[in-house]
Amino acid sequence: xxxxxxxxxxxxxxxxxxxxxxxxxxxxxxxxxxxxxxxxxxxxxxxxxxxxxxxxxxxxxxxxxxxxxxxxxxxxxxxxxxxxxxxxxxxxxxxxxxxxxxxxxxxxxxxxxxxxxxxxxxxxxxxxxxxxxxxxxxxxxxxxxxxxxxxxxxxxxxxxxxxxxxxxxxxxxxxxxxxxxxxxxxxxxxxxxxxxxxxxxxxxxxxxxxxxxxxxxxxxxxxxxxxxxxxxxxxxxxxxxxxxxxxxxxxxxxxxxxxxxxxxxxxxxxxxxxxxxxxxxxxxxxxxxxxxxxxxxxxxxxxxxxxxxxxxxxx
Length: 315
Prior knowledge:
The protein is an all-alpha fold. It has 8 helices and no strands. α1 (2-20) runs antiparallel to α2 and α7 (202-275) packs antiparallel against α8.
């Protein structure tokens, strides 16, 4: 009964070994088979007529696995040398990229190299750590340089933002100016200076530009409204002047007509004087006509002066 129990136990180990003999979980299986072999040694003898056959089965299963393991290690050794070559090529590419200043494209290239590195199997153990450190050093050098560049760029952009905000403040001050000609030139100078200032941080660039543009637009809107109103007022004044001119011309015409009538009357009266003959009422008629002539002639200088004044005003 004891021999039969030992046989049963060893047969179970044999079946387990035969099952493991085809495994490709190399490390775990090697340890499991070694554990089976160690357990085999703790079990006593089995019936003699079945002992040799069972042992051969058990040993064959273990040998089969370890032969496969040895072959795998040979192949793995060959593969690891190829992996080392591939990783060294990735290191060379990384070291070349490490000095690049094409920050965006180089960073994308590094990410691609890192992804490819993960697809390459292990290198020989004696070289694995050194080749990884070499690859990591190249990547670290690039990303450290990129960080320094980004920090410098960020500082420059903050300074550019400060300069642009100062230009905005000046533009907003000028937007209320009524010194139209001088302010137009000042705004042109601001716009020229704006173009010399580098970019501001992306999260603030648009807002500071809108403020600058709005201040300039406000000034030119006010200028346009001012000149439109001035032109309208000028049109009104021109209309008023034309009305006044027409009135002056009418006044001049009336004065001129009055002068002409006076001069005609004087001529007519003088002709009448020449035709008066001595008689009962000749002296009375003569005196009346002379009085009329004297009265009208006395008013002529004032009328001529008024006409000259009106004509001068018209001119």
